[in-house]
Amino acid sequence: MSKFKEIRETLGKDLTEIANDTKIRTSYLKAIEERDFKHLPVEVYTRAYIKEYARYLGVDPNETIIEYENYLTAKRNSKVPIETRPLHSEKPIDRLTNSLKKSYESNKLTINYIPFSLVKLALIVLIMTLSGYLLLTYQSKYHGINEVGEYKPPAIVVKAKEDINVSPQGKENLSEDSKQEGQVIALNKDDKSTKDIAQTFKHNLSIVAIEKVWLQIIIDNKEKKDLTLNAGQQLHYKANESFKLLIGNAGGIKIQFNNKLLENLGDSGKVIKITLPEQSSDT
């Protein structure tokens, strides 16, 4: 199983959901997971799709990019070279002349004895050959360029992740001010009243993203949040009982629980689960 597919299934995401978020076709996402590069589009778009899918999952795209480059190299090396004639190779008129000379030598004839009808036929063949040669040259030089110019590959549309802000009433909403990197601040949601928000909680949790990372947080076994953070963005939460975290990139995040920094969460790209205050992790 590929790393992309393993992390996607661990995060509980299906290809259709990711296709809607990234605007990349489901068939392309599946081909990237299965390293089925022959079913992907042209090189520039394939590289962009691999990088975007990797960023979405919070993993390093370099390994897959290297595999794709190796595939392209092998594909180019396996192609049988097409034999092409040099620019100054034998022309149609030379081929006809040589043919007539060979006929003359084999039959001991002279040009004077060649029937007029044969000369006429030779001229017709020569004209048709030259016309065909010029037509093919024109089409390959001009018409082919038009076809390339009209090619319109699918545009890459990357859906921006909307960050979380908090209204004065304590409810989460989306705002323009929260879209700058390092400006995301999310607080615990409580629908009772603004007075309840000021109550004392037993536990506090602070999260700072070092790299792009996807995570899921469950607060007091009630509130569930699915978030994607860019480098520099922060989150702050409070709880009375516990926090349960599913992190898609252990090396891309710093966690402080009850004002104590958690050490050695894992390497970049590693998926872990943590329960606080009773901490545990697995891949």
Key attributes of the depicted protein:
434 Repressor (Amino-terminal Domain), 4-stranded antiparallel sheet, alpha+beta, 3 domains, 8 helices
| Low-confidence runs | 82-89, 144-151, 156-187
Number of strands: 10
Question: What fraction strand?
Answer: 15-25%
What structural class do helix, strand and pairing data support?
alpha+beta
Give the strand line-up of the largest sheet: 6-3-8-9
Q: What number of domains?
A: 3
Radius of gyration: 34 Å
Number of helices: 8
Through-space gap between termini = 15 Å
What does this 3D model show about the protein?
There is one protein chain. The chain has 283 residues and is an alpha+beta fold. It folds into 3 domains: 3-78, Orthogonal Bundle (434 Repressor (Amino-terminal Domain)); 92-150; 165-276, no CATH class. 39% of the residues lie in helices and 17% in strands. It has helices spanning 3-10, 15-22, 26-33, 43-57, 62-78, 92-107, 116-150, 194-197, and strands at 165-166, 172-173, 203-209, 213-219, 223-229, 234-239, 243-247, 253-257, 260-261, 272-276. The strands form 3 sheets. It has a 4-stranded antiparallel beta sheet, with no helix packed on it. Strands 5-4-7-10 form a 4-stranded antiparallel beta sheet, with helices on one face. The chain has a two-stranded antiparallel sheet with strand order 1-2. A hairpin with a 3-residue loop joins strand 4 and strand 5. The chain is rod-shaped, with a radius of gyration of 34 Å. The chain starts with a helix and ends in a 7-residue tail after the last strand. Mean pLDDT is 76; it is low at 82-89, 144-151 and 156-187.
